Request: fold
Amino acid sequence: MFTLQVGSIFTIILVLAVVIVVAAMLIWVERRLLSFWQERLGPNRVGWFGLLQVVADMVKIFNKEDWIPRFADRFSFVLAPAIIMTVVLLSFAVIPFAPNIGVVDSNVGVLFVLAMASLGAYSVMLGGLSSDNKYALLGSLRCAAQMVSYEVFMGISLLGVVALSGSFNLRVIVEAQADGWYVIPQFVGFVIFLIAGIAESHRLPFDLPEAEGEIAAGYHAEYGGIKFGMFFVAEYVGLVLVSSLITVLFFGGWLGPAFLPPIVWFSAKAFTFIAFFILLRAAIPRPRYDQLMNFGWLFLLPVSLVNLLVTGAIILSTQ
Amino acid sequence: MAKIVVDGVEFEVNPDNNLLQECLSQGLDLPYFCWHPCMGSVGACRQCAVKQYKDADDKVGMLVMSCMTPAADGSIISIEDEQAKDMRERVIESLMISHPHDCPVCEEGGECHLQDMTLMSGHNYRRYDKKKVTHRNQYLGPFINHEMNRCITCYRCVRFYGDYAGGTDLAAQASHHHTYFGRHEDGVLESEFSGNLVEVCPTGVFTDQAFSQHYSRKWDLQTAPSVCTGCSVGCNTIPGERYRQLRRITNRYNSDINGYFICDRGRFGYDYVNSDARLTEPSQQFDAEVVPIAEQELQSVLEEFHSGEGGTIGIGSPRASNESNFALRCLVGDENFYSGLSDRSQEATQLVLKLARDKVFHSPSVREIEKADAVVILGEDVTNVAPRIALALRQSVRNKAKELAAGCHIPQWQDAAVRELAQHDRSPLAILSSYATRLDDVASDCVVDVPAALVDTGFAIAASLSDLSGAPATTEHNAVAERIAAQLSAAKRPLIIAGTTAGQTGLIKAAANIARALSARSEAAIDLCLLVPEVNTLGVSMLANNDNKLSEALSKLASGAARRAIVLENDLYRRADSETVTAALSGLEKLLVIDQLPTATTSQADIVLPSTAFSEHEATYVNYEGRGQLSFQVHRNHNRALPAWRWLNDSEPGDVEAMINRCAEEAQGFDKLDDLLPDIKQFVAGMKVPRQSHRYSGRTAMRSQVNVHEPKQPVDSQSVMSFSMEGIPSASNATVLGSVWAPGWNSNQAISKFQNEINGELKQGHTGSLLIERTESVSSFYTPEAAAQESAKGVLQVAPAYQIFGSDELSARSHAIQQRMTDAYVGISPEDADSLGLKQGDSVSLDGNGTLATLCIRSRIRTGTAAVYCGDNQINPHSLGATLTLSKSETISDDRGISGLIVSDLYEEGY
Amino acid sequence: MFTLIKDSLLTQVRTLWLVFKKLFTKADTVEYPDVQPYMFPRWRGRIILSRDPDGEERCVACNLCAVVCPVDCIALQKAEKDDGRWYPEFFRINFSRCVMCGFCEEACPTNAIQLTPDFEMAEYVRQDMVWEKENLLINGTGKYHDYNFYRVSGMQIDGKDKGEALNEAAPVDVRSLLP
Reply:
């Protein structure tokens, strides 16, 4: 039924390290980009162009008191940040970075990614619940509803791509785009996936679970130190993941003219989307919670279904 | 009751008063300067102008001075009228023409009536471009600063100082805009009430010099309602603390006692609280060595006393609170508790208490004393023993003037007119005294004689009022006695004053006889005011067993019948003769002394425990009329001193309110003591009353040099007040009147906002509880004692002479009071001086035993009498007999001399 | 349909574009320690106590700055010199509480307390932010050069007798009968 091809232990460590370092560096990238878009300079003091800011932040966050509130449920409180970190990192197992770089070559890669994404919801729910704090609870409520809802459209919007390539294997999907990126036939699917991806990683403007101005950091209100750091970095890892998925599913992954190696093409594409997500944060304000849910169920759901039906019809008619 | 309309609103007012007073009574804001509730109106400042209308149809109206206009029924006035407002603004503008632009360096600033009224009237800019009139200031002694430039010529100072308090050395000088208020030359203001000028003056001409030396603005003082501990009158005061220092005392209005004024002893006698000499920690004394005592050791020592094994003698004190004395009594038991009064004083005080329970007498409050229309004082030097009562007596002699004025339909508040009408007509005030007193200038009769002869004269007065009172041997004063008797029997409200300080119980008995005879005539309770010297003399006497005499306690201790003793805030060397005390204290197994300051007694102690001063604890005291009063804690003691009862309390270390309740329950005669405690449940939201004003400044900086992290505000778990700004301040509610302030009224004149009516009771105020119930009715007269006898030549009869500055043990250790204190002196007549070959100011030795004093020759003292200065420990009156001899001494007794002595009859040779 | 798309979608895209363009504009940030900003003379920074034109301490310890201070961070105690001047025995500002509101300067009747354009007052130890008079008092008049309180006020000090202040006539002779 399905096959697994596991890469070498070296590849695994390499991917893990690169993903985490990139995610950490994104903290600096985001702050710098945001400040440019806001006519500021951003962190430019620590190291060359402020590059070591991340190190400073990390040193700070590691040195903070590892504190658990007396009223919190200790077990799940500690478990929650570990879950989200684990699931986003596991998702990278199936991402094909280049023809010869990848951890697992799975023929159910797309499903695996979706499965991991839905597991992430547990982390946020547990974190909010175990904090025993009303803002945290509100945050986790919002998050659960938002993630469960947008997973639906995310999945449906992918099906067009799967139908076109005829495989759940991400590597196969990339290779199937050698003649043309799926963003062209599946433009509607791409837009829906993009929106759902932002919602899944609860990045701005869809950061309602942690909406600073309304519910004071939401589900991680009670977290501090390295546990907060895990939530924080997991968000950036999630950002990289979504960008990588978009690259793989709609923009031909590592494919590109041969004057650059495939991994560079992949990185460039992924980074473009990362930058785009940061631009969204800089430009678009947060919608109201009911608007977000209405938009999902009343607009995205029908549109994605229509997209799937039309894609299916076209495929059937051209066979 | 009359109805007047003010700005269209109808008010019910008292038609006997003027419009200004009634407007203020109704809580309206109307600026004024020269009017004072106790001094009436003179219309000097023109500041209280209002528009008065003839009738409802009159639209034009006319400007009148509200203080000079009666609140007649149907009056229609307007305060808000534009013309009236304009007039008031112009008036204050002209009053301010020569004001010296020195509010920042004025002690009055922030509690200045002139500032308040300027703001209320709306004046803000000096348009007058000519020169300001200036004046030179005078030195007025250690109490009062003079800054004449600030004057607005309201005449309040001279009206208070001269007309009200009888001072002769302050007057208005020069004329028109040169008017000057001062003495004829630089010098100490003689009146014992000069401190009130600070509060009477609406601006900063007279300011508190002692306060200026450690000055704080009014809003920066931590204050609480307190009771003066200077004498037995129990005037209500507001002490203020800042930076851990007690900084000043101001008057707290009490409609029954002090009203608007207190004496200088009360106002300036607080500084001992800040003294470096204060006892700071529990200590143990071995021979001459003083070592701090460790906490554990202290516990074991206290337990030893608490266990009650063997007899412990407990000697209380008339300057300690009821709670402390009661705690000591509980600790040592009824039979071992002694009042701490000298034998003579105790006998007299017990007599006072006995009379205080008699139905035919009434103990008049100070306000009631002011209403007396015939007074006789038997032997007491009231000005020096209970100064505030002397001030009240000065008012009582004006009742004649008021009566005359009523006959001519002149309103009482028309001060100048009433005085003009009466001229020198006064109600009778007869003074029987061994030497001239400070009230002689208003007395109708002065009998100056040796103490024993005064007793006879007293009985003679009684005898001429009633046949039942035994007749004494005829004295040379019979004619005067009969005249006094006639005046008393003619009076509507006669008053007899006697007391324990004259040292003659016969005088008290004579006073009782006079009052009893009058009572039999009028069939009403007669005002009998019996003075005691110290703040809680009556309280401690009510607690102590009548038969427990100090001499017995001392002989028990000396003989070894009792091996341990606790002395509570008492210097026994002031209560008995020195040798007896030393003999009693030296051979003890353990002597525990609790006190605030080191005394001769603490130096004899094995263990000395520091106690808190009056402003550092909450306490109750019983004043001369048996009125229990509650005094709140103002500030904390930052050393290890505790209220004396806390050291002695053998049960739970409960709070002071629990202690007061226990005292009320267990001590006989104190059942009403718990009425004094305010009920916090009746306050807004059950919140405490803050001791700090809402503008208290520097909270985050005053301790920051020690630690920048501010400590938690100290919590007062014991009372209804808080040691911070937290809580609801008493706005127009005087239950706990910690500070007198109302919006727009920063000066003490804001008190009108707390009064039900001007000069009347405070809203929700508590004037104290009269503890002693008059239940007995013994209708027997005292029989006169043996008649006075001529003493041998050269032998002088001792008459104790008290001094307002010096005789009170604690206030005498205050810096300002010390500057006004004199040497210990002996006052004799010029004839005696001649025969002894002594001159004014000579040093004399008493009884040749080495006790030194300065000689003071007084023109109005009976030959054969020696007025012996009491207090300040230099002469122990208990070591002297009833008579003494004097001899010239070469040694100079002290460096103060007697130049500061304020008596009316200082003999000057060549006169 | 078109307006819907225009209003909901295209406006968002336009926003993104407008913000994106900012990538190529110059930042407004002044890089403070490297570039010193111009501080206006009436900037409300570090508080000082000034002296009058004669070099005497201006503060007369009237306590108005302390009472007007909204965070109560000023504490002082009045004392008097032999020459009759009032001065603060101690004058303490707890800068760790100060909010630089400038009310103290507004309230000061003698122009003694002034706020200056210096704002570099950070300390590693909070205790070091408690400044006493010797730290606050400068040897100059600060922003107000001419004012001398004692020349205007009627209070007598050594060297300025009664009647010698601004607009004052010579002291009255109370014994005189002349008008």
In short: The longest helix of chain C spans residues 2-21. The CA atoms of residues 150 and 163 of chain C lie 12 Å apart.
